[in-house]
Amino acid sequence: MRRKLIKGAAIVSMDAAIGDLPKGDVLIEQDRIVAVAPSIAADDAEVIDASRMLLLPGLINGHLHTWQTGLRGLAADWTVAGYMQAMHRGLATLFRPEDIHIANLVGALNQINNGATTLVDWCHNNPTPAHSDAAVQGLADAGIRALFLHGSPKPDPKPGQKHFSEVPMPRGEVERFCKGRFASRDGLLTFGLAVLGPYYSTYDVTKQDLALAREFDVFASMHVGGGKGMVPDGFERLLDDGLVDRHLTIVHGNDIAPDTVRRIADRGGTFTVTAEIELQMGYGDPLTGILHEHKAPISIGSDVEPAVGSDLFTCMRLTLQHERNRGIIETLEKTGSRPQRAAVTCRDALAWVTIDAAKIAGLDDRVGSVTPGKQADLVLLRTDALNMTPMRDLVGCAVMQAATANVDTVLIAGRTVKQAGRLLADDVAGKLAKLQSSGDRILADFEALPTRAA
Predict the structure, then answer these.
(1) pLDDT tens column, 198-209
(2) DSSP 200
(3) Which of 29, 118, 336, 368 could form a disulfide with 60 if both were Cys (CB 3.0 to 4.6 A apart)?
(4) What is the DSSP string of 281-335?
(5) 412 half-sphere exposure, CB direction, 13 A CA radius
């Protein structure tokens, strides 16, 4: 691969040692960043003119059910009860492996188009190994960097079957992936578990699943929200039993007691916030404020694509502004006056989709900042557009002004995957047609179910 020189960009590195550069260059060799400086000479390199662009680390979507991509808009007015019933006990049961593949492929391409170079894919519709393999292949075919989280489907049990809450993660499948496709951890795709946790499973199942994650030294993520948990004191018990550590990430967790949230963070556990979905489903205030005050890393994600769009610029703004409003109201009630300064900044919000998200996904040695030695996952935003001119503050404009329309160029591991505003993927129209047909078939089969799931 020829060396690349990104020339003349405004740079927000998210690396404290490098800082922000009003104008600078980035030199890339193979898949790595080798230099970041105000000016770099490299006569043999392919030059990318970024004189009217803002360069950021590639963005990281910390939580997305990519398999649902073909059902966009369907859940826009759903409650959490409607989602659980219609999606998990109805629509999910109708997906074939090929439906999972095209959904993950198009969903991942959409993330790249939006400026995200890494996706944490929370795949909990994999009733067979073929479904799981199709999900992974969809991500691979898109060329995105992804942490694939192997989950558990949640259908109503058939006669003689155990309820899903009593079924631990299938050890054979975990071993198959860890010793097979994910035997090496050096590729674009890495592996983890999307476990049920004490909210959706028995305590014994939770213990087994976390023990499995530790045994294979993989990431374990769990949903917490949407009703009363099966084990009300589950997290306190996990803490007391020494089962919370760096392997564990909790998605949502809005109704976990604040002291327990802090204890989890102190043990190395982390949290992912999906504010837009949490607000739609009535989970309560996102944990953004508690975690920020505790100086704990935060990642954010778009979550349910049938309900909301999945660009991270919107995610950042909504999460940030909700927390600002919540914090201001809290201060006003306590002191009788509003604070003079914003407690949570735009740079904090950008960290949620870059360096902090990389730390939580276990990828901060590779991505998350524009740092020599890391892989070249980068995004260039056009700053000569109507919505970005003039750019008075680099981080402020990146978070509060930018949109997908500004994403000009995207690189993943040094490979250009979007250029001049155009996604460099073959036959996008054909892929979209296949996604449309997949969703049409699933919805038709859903309508034909003997008893409607919603």
Answers:
(1) 999 999 999 999
(2) H
(3) 118
(4) HT--S-THHHHHHTT--EEE--B-TTTS---HHHHHHHHHHHHHHHHHHHHHHHH
(5) 25
Cβ–Cβ under 8 Å, residues 87 and 325: no
pLDDT digits (tens, 9 = 90+) for 405-442: 999 999 999 999 999 999 999 999 999 999 999 999 99
N residues, the chain: 454
Burial of 357 (0-12, 13-18, 19+ CB in 10 A): buried
3-state secondary structure (DSSP) of residue 437: helix
Can you say whether residue 397 is alpha, beta or left, with left for phi > 0 and alpha for psi between -120 and 50 degrees? alpha
Residue pLDDT, tens place only, 33-89: 999 999 999 999 999 999 999 999 999 999 999 999 999 999 999 999 999 889 988
Sign, CA dihedral 5-108-292-191, equals negative
Helices (H) and strands (E) in the chain, counts: 15, 17
Per-residue model confidence (pLDDT) at position 450: 64
Q: Which domains does the chain have, with CATH numbers?
A: 4-54+377-420 (2.30.40.10), 59-359 (3.20.20.140)
Judge if the upstream peptide bond of residue 390 is cis by omega within 30 degrees of 0. yes
Cβ–Cβ < 8 Å for 354, 369 = yes
Q: What is the pTM of this model?
A: 0.97
* Structural contact between residues 393 and 70, judged by C-beta atoms closer than 8 angstroms: no
Band of the pLDDT at 453, cuts 50, 70, 90? very low
The partner residues of 36 in beta bridges, in order of sequence, read 26
In this structure, is the dihedral angle defined by the CA atoms of residues 98, 103, 106 and 107, taken in order, positive or negative?
Answer: negative
Please give the Cα distance from 63 to 69 (Å, whole number). 13
